[in-house]
Design brief:
Blueprint: H1 21-27, H2 51-69, H3 78-97, H4 99-103, H5 109-130, E1 136-140, E2 143-147, H6 148-155
Antiparallel strand pairs: 1-2
Length: 171
């Protein structure tokens, strides 16, 4: 795994492991209803949330995964990166559109988040095993960091001097 080049910003819309709205819908099938209450099976411009709104949350999910292991996920780990990013996006759909159901435990949020947490460490270990030494699970001084993205961010001034890491990725 390599750190992002300084002259080419990462475009989370084009990473090969980016989930589709269909991937998120597969986790939230009951939320894919149109105005008449018909289950569509995916998010469209007729559902709440719309496909465009879910795309924004997918970007957040990708950024969360990149904060764990970096943007350059090895090919053998991309299916799991996609799945984990879809879970994060599904959780954000629940929090954004049905927060009252999340609070009342009438939402799949808790189960989805537990699934993410259960899979996260194994995913990070797998990516670390597939990646070149030092690119995942490195240090900045005395600070242990999981991702080469974090190392890159601090090397180029993010996280200090008025810039925040969220200026680089939405984490």
């Amino acid at each position: 795994m390599s750190t992002p080049p300084t002259d080419t910003p990462i475009d989370p819309m084009t990473v090969p492991w980016r989930p589709s709205v269909d991937d998120v819908a597969a986790l939230l099938r009951a939320r894919t209803k149109d105005a008449s209450g018909n289950e569509i099976g995916t998010f469209t411009d007729q559902t709440r949330p719309t496909d465009a709104e879910v795309e924004m949350l997918i970007t957040n999910g990708c950024a969360k995964i990149a904060s764990l292991v970096g943007w350059d996920v090895p090919a053998d780990a991309q299916a799991e990166a996609l799945h984990l990013a879809a879970i994060v996006a599904a959780c954000e759909v629940e929090l954004s559109y049905w927060p009252e159901q999340v609070r009342a435990d009438r939402s799949p949020y808790a189960q989805l988040w537990a699934l993410f947490q259960d899979d996260r460490d194994a995913f990070m270990q797998y990516v670390s095993a597939l990646s070149p030494a030092g690119s995942v699970g490195t240090r900045i001084g005395t600070l242990d960091v999981a991702s080469g993205t974090v190392v890159w961010a601090y090397q180029y001034g993010y996280g200090g001097l008025g810039k925040t890491l969220s200026d680089l990725v939405n984490v």
